[in-house]
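Write out this protein's structure.
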Amino acid sequence: MSVLKGQQAPDFTLYNTLKQPVQLSSLRGSKVVLLFFPAAFTGTCTKELCSVRDDLSWYNNVNAKVFGISTDAVFSLIRYKEEQNLNFELLSDFNKTVCGTYGSQYETFILDMKGVAKRSAFVIDENGVVVYAEVLESAGDIPDFEKIKAALN
């Protein structure tokens, strides 16, 4: 089941690269961008997240908090964030509890990996309502950042 535009965003708590819990509902009052991605240290994921890194001032100017979410372990995400100089939070859904809730999870990915995050983008407004939802079937595609930015405006 996928989360759709107009729905209340399902709440969750995941750990960031500082090993601290981040709860979605605690971010009310800010716009939130959730970017689910399949795997750290891969080409398309790096291209996507580095493009956000390079444009983060735009997101900051519209009071939007950006989070990358994958099923990678926190420890892998720590190293990935450092290597790519990512300036926004990465969250670990290692236990695969959030990706499925958002309809952003492959049943089977490459090399028979189970439960890997699908590349997806969700924009959540200040009241916790989803105002943009995009779930991509192909891991080689990148979300439409122009539509994401339009939803944030």
